[in-house]
Amino acid sequence: xxxxxxxxxxxxxxxxxxxxxxxxxxxxxxxxxxxxxxxxxxxxxxxxxxxxxxxxxxxxxxxx
Length: 64
Known about the structure:
This protein has 64 residues and is an alpha+beta fold. The chain contains one helix and two strands. It has one helix at 43-50; strands spanning 28-31, 34-37. It is flat and about 55 Å long. The protein starts with 27 loop residues before the first strand and ends in a 14-residue tail after the last helix.
């Protein structure tokens, strides 16, 4: 096990990537009960995926 109690002077280093070093993020979604990557969808299913509306449910106000 490493003892980090003596290493209090460590500073976080900023990581900078050029555009050539970056790679695309693979997006997965649940379809018909299992998970699949969106990249494997056909044109129609990709269109449906990108038209989805996302929402945030707020806490219900209960009467006192």
